Amino acid sequence: MRERILIFCGVAIFLVLFTYPLWHAAAVSTRATPLRLQLPVEARECVAPIPYMSRGHMEILISWRENAVRHGVRMVRATNGKVYDASLTHTCLGCHSRQEFCDKCHSYSGVSAPTCWQCHNESKLIAGRTP
To answer: Is-contact 120 88, C-beta < 8 A?
Structure first.
């Protein structure tokens, strides 16, 4: 009979310790503050809808890079029907600031910075040069 009490107490302690993160998070009820990105004022639309761009922008940039480098396709038709230059520097950085948009979102999400910035940077865009 005495072993049953010890086993029950051991199982109870295990369950409390194992589920501690769940009930502690529910009790504290902390929420991350939403990210406030500085959206471009002059540009009203992007190359794709915002919900898609927030999760799939790297796929677009990679396909642009592959098509431009391997196939020479420098212009792309977006979902809105407009034709854009397949360029991070000329198209994306023309509206968005790296520090106020890209870096802020990557830092908030805990995503490491991509290798885009080895070739593309705003100083080259400002100086009128392309990578």
So the answer is: yes
The SS3 of residue 37 is coil
Q: Record the pTM.
A: 0.63
Structure tokens at 65: 């890079």
Rounded CA-CA distance 38/46 in Å is 14
| In contact, 119 and 92? CB cutoff 8 Å | no
Instruction: Count CA within 13 A, CB hemisphere, residue 38.
Output: 11
**Do the beta carbons of residue 61 and residue 49 sit within 8 Å?**
no
Tokens standing for 77? 């038709």
Q: State how far the Cα of 51 lies from the Cα of 84, in Å rounded to an integer.
A: 19
CA distance 68 to 115: 17
Write out pLDDT tens, residues 46-100. Answer: 888 888 888 889 899 999 989 988 999 999 998 888 899 988 888 888 888 888 8
Residue 121 and residue 93: Cα distance in Å, rounded?
A: 9
pLDDT at 27: 81
